[in-house]
Amino acid sequence: MKGGIMATHWVATAAGSPESWEFEEYEAAAPGKGEVTIRVRAAGVNPADAKHVAAARPGLEFPVPIGYEVSGELAAIGPATRIGSGEAEVGDEVVAFRVRGGYATEVTVPAAKVFAKPSTLTHPEAANLLLVGTTAAEMLAVTGASPGETVLLHGASGAVGVSVLQQARLRDVRVIGTASPERFDEVRRFGGVPVAYGRGLADRVRALADGPIAAALDAVGTDEAIDVSLALVSDRRRIVTIANFARASADGFLAIAGSMPDSARFRDEVRSELVALAQNGDLVVPLARTFPLAEAPAAHRLLATGHPGGKLALVTDA
User: CA dihedral in degrees (122, 219, 98, 53; nearest 10)?
Assistant: First the structure.
């Protein structure tokens, strides 16, 4: 294949909100050795997509193609190239994570970041599997959550929280998870014990735990979440946040993010395990809504409300 494929994608030409992004034609480069081109069927919508380009910072050069994870089909394969899960052929359904420019109709990416799509998931579901899944897996790993223990999870009904619940259940880890009362059934669906956040949270958690809280996982970042975690977990090495780095630094507990080298390494290593769990039906992705690819800003407006009720995906007409 000598030339690339004409496609469309979303790109940030300068720092700003999704409303300032541009939807434009571009040429998806022909894949070289170690690369593949994916015909995108769905792109996962994540807060990080917008946060990454919201403000100028050292090392960030515009224009920046948007989107970190996709699901689709292989449109072209570079010479002597295998994907992350092994041999593959044009037309195979795949997922890709930690890529650049996934909000596109076609995108060329490193083959090592591409895995066979779990047949149990639709494209919009599969496009949202790995960012939240690897984040959840790392939260459980760094806090040492072990079989028989009880842990506290802040934000249990959110996207990361739901993945934590499923993965903890597979490890025989009991989870008490904060949520609003109208989301209690979602927490119970995935094996968690729901508890309402707000005044008196620590006492309610103690009553439900009927024993020690071994670790605390924070996916919301509120001061209440941090204060209650510090009050209930004696070992600060077993408290982790993905949402309040200032408190982690000030109070001496863990913070993780995909941009950190150790986190990036862990998340790369665990991808194949999560794909296998999904293929076995042990890991699902609750989906709230899909949007046409051309409506990415609208998807982010809903995401910014903080209450989408599940994952969002951009879908193409391909």
Answer: 110
Neighbours of 115 (CB within 10 A): 23
Per DSSP, the three-state class of 55 is coil
Q: What is the pLDDT of residues 255-309, one digit of tens each?
A: 999 999 999 999 999 999 999 999 999 999 999 999 999 999 999 999 999 889 9
Beta strand segments in 46-83, E: 64-65, 69-77
Residue 61, CA distances (Å) to 12, 28, 53, 293 in order: 10, 19, 10, 24
Q: What is the pLDDT of residues 129-170, one digit of tens each?
A: 999 999 999 999 999 999 999 999 999 999 999 999 999 999
Alpha carbon 88 to its chain centroid, in Å, reads 25
Instruction: Compute the distance between CA of residue 236 and CA of residue 112 in angstroms, rounded to an integer.
Output: 35
Tokens 């149990």, residue?
A: 120
CB atoms within 10 A of CB 144: 13
Structure tokens, 251: 């109070």
User: CA-CA distance, 312 to 300, in Å (whole number)?
Assistant: 9
Beta strands in 137-231, from DSSP E residues, in sequence order: 150-154, 174-179, 193-196, 215-218
Phi/psi for 140 (5° steps) reads -70, -40
Element (DSSP H or E) covering residue 6: strand 5-12
- Strands across the sheet with 239-241, in order? 193-196, 174-179, 150-154, 215-218, 239-241, 254-255
- What is the three-class DSSP state of 66? coil
Position 2 pLDDT exceeds 80: no
Judge if pTM exceeds 0.70.
yes
Least Cα distance to 241 among 230, 231, 309 occurs for 230
Q: Which is nearest to 217 in space by CA: 191, 244, 190?
A: 244
Question: Can you tell me the distance from the alpha carbon of 98 to that of 111, in angstroms, rounded to the nearest whole number?
Answer: 11
3-state secondary structure of 121: coil
Q: What is the DSSP letter of 281?
A: T
